[in-house]
Amino acid sequence: MNNEDNKNLILATVLSGLVILVWMVFFPPQEQVVDPNATEASGESLLPPVATEAPVTPLATATPTAPSTPSEGPAPRVKIDTPRLGGSISLQGGRIDDLVLRGYKEDLSDDSPNVTLLRPEGQVGAYYSVFGWVPGGDLGFEDVPGPNTVWQQVGEGSLSPETPVVLAWSNTKGQTFNRTYSVDEDFLFTVEQTVENTSGADIRLAPYSEIVRVGEPTDLKGFFVIQEGPIRQTGEEMNEFSYDDLTDLDSDPLWGASTEVVEVQQNGWIGFTDHYWMTTLIPAKDQPFSSVLRYEAGGDRYKTIARLGTVSVASGSQQSVSTQLFAGAKEWETIRNYEKEDGIYRFVDSIDWGWFFFLTKPIFSVLHKLNELIGNMGWSIIALTLLIKGILFPLAYKSYVSMAKMKELQPQMEKLKEKAGDDRQKLQQSMMELYKKEKVNPASGCLPILLQIPIFFSLYKVIFVTIELRHAPWIGWIKDLSAPDPSSILNLFGLLPWSTPEPSSIFFIVSLGILPILLGISMWLQQKLNPAPTDPTQKMIFAWMPWVFMFMLGSFASGLVVYWIANNVITFTQQYLIMRSQGYKPDVLGNIFSGFKRGSKDKG
């Protein structure tokens, strides 16, 4: 192995190590965080109401917070029953506050419950949506339905894709409010609010919708690589926030809460996003609205609010406004269809594609298509690896041909070294002339390595972020490609009757699974395509590198380790065949045995 090959291999080591170090710094092991502020019960926070004589302009920017008096005891509920959702709507406030995602389990155990997305007020982690009206003119808060107003269901039945639900409420001044809930086969609700005025006088009021979250989520991961918290599309740009960002907002003296308001002219939406789930308020795409972020410290409430402009309703007429609510899993195909078919602007960007979005988006799109054809995400990752290696093959071919030619030039390079003696400048000049004469580029081996780094990060992002990899099985013991290999050498991969260390344990790093071990072996075999370097330092680096990587990657998602193993195997095969085609015959077995012999001599 000549100096240039050694430099390229050292560069590969350094760059690959950099990948791992960056991952370990920014993406630490997952820990469950329990919210210390969560309480068993807390009432709806009450903020000062807007005066009923408020003019039209303040009306458009107000948010209702003074509810009607709730009834005693729990309010009746209307069942939600769709192929993908279960739960109910509370007639108190007409809140969508009880929602379970069918088809998604909390974990892989046989008795695991379905994922609960929304929870009613009073439960730990309360999380719900509210719709209503802000009063103006002669109307007061008691004249419009508030967060605690008890509605009446018109007719009977549950909410399903085939059967919408209508709620009604009337005040004492001649106005009747109707609210119609519809839901599709997936995760999109449509809430149409209608006010009918028979008072004999014109009225003014403004519709609103909001999502309320009490306390931070208890399963907040807090990873740099994933967006968790409020998210907003203004029609011009996407804004992402953490929960701490809301607590740091300027306080609004009118409402006594941290508030930020952005005026959106069209194509806007706002809500909360978790690792795999999301709730989003979506006004009509041509509907201007005030996009509001708010944190109420008194009740530890995070709110995302869509406040629409004031409407005037003449006596004898009615006005209606519709707002959509997405509440469900961030499935790429489902969200993309909402963007394409329902016109929800850039909705697919609610999935956090990261800095390398120009790579992560097409990589996932191809992976999704491969999975549709193959039906297994593990084999689809291997097929994707083959495809990526095929695309990069021209560069790899040029690199390996150059490496083979470099080996052919080894005798001439040795003569140049003898001739130059200690004159390193003369040696470098002579070598550059030789490279130029033989048309060899010693740096050509670096480009494929450099291209692998953004691909690695992009694939890591895809595997970590997209819900399609969550709980996706591969073969045998690999039941979740988004989680580390669950097998462990410490119990002989399940043959011994004791459990393996938890991820938080200091012993977890030595609890190697089958995949990380295969990764180390594949890297070690790849090294054996060339004889070990004569330089002691380089020899030591190469000897330790596969096993260091094996331990460092042990806690990576199984899907990423599968990709790396497949990449190593394909790279080994490509390099071996190309070198042989150029007249150089790698002696893999000879290099392995010679390494063992040198090791025995060193010990002796």
UniProtKB/TrEMBL annotation:
**What Gene Ontology molecular-function terms does this entry list?**
membrane insertase activity
Q: Which GO terms describe its biological process?
A: protein insertion into membrane; protein transport
What positions does the domain Membrane insertase YidC N-terminal occupy? 77-365
Q: Where in the cell is it found?
A: Cell inner membrane; Cell membrane
**One family name in Pfam for this protein:** 60KD_IMP
Q: Where is this region: Disordered?
A: 60-84
- Which stretches does UniProt call biased (Low complexity)? 60-76
Please report the stretch or stretches of sequence annotated as the Membrane insertase YidC/Oxa/ALB C-terminal domain.
377-580
Looking at the UniProt entry, the stretches that span the membrane are 9-27, 377-397, 440-460, 505-525, 546-566
Keyword Glycoprotein assigned:
no
Name any GO cellular component annotation: plasma membrane
Swiss-Prot/TrEMBL keywords: Cell membrane, Chaperone, Membrane, Protein transport, Transmembrane, Transmembrane helix, Transport
This protein's membrane topology, according to the annotation, is:
Multi-pass membrane protein
Which coarse location class describes where this protein primarily resides?
membrane
The answer to whether UniProt assigns keyword Chaperone to this entry is yes
Indicate the quaternary assembly: Interacts with the Sec translocase complex via SecD. Specifically interacts with transmembrane segments of nascent integral membrane proteins during membrane integration.
Q: Which family does it belong to?
A: Belongs to the OXA1/ALB3/YidC family. Type 1 subfamily.
Role according to the record: Required for the insertion and/or proper folding and/or complex formation of integral membrane proteins into the membrane. Involved in integration of membrane proteins that insert both dependently and independently of the Sec translocase complex, as well as at least some lipoproteins. Aids folding of multispanning membrane proteins.
Name by which UniProt lists this protein: Membrane protein insertase YidC
Q: What is the lineage of its organism?
A: Bacteria, Pseudomonadati, Pseudomonadota, Alphaproteobacteria, Rhodobacterales
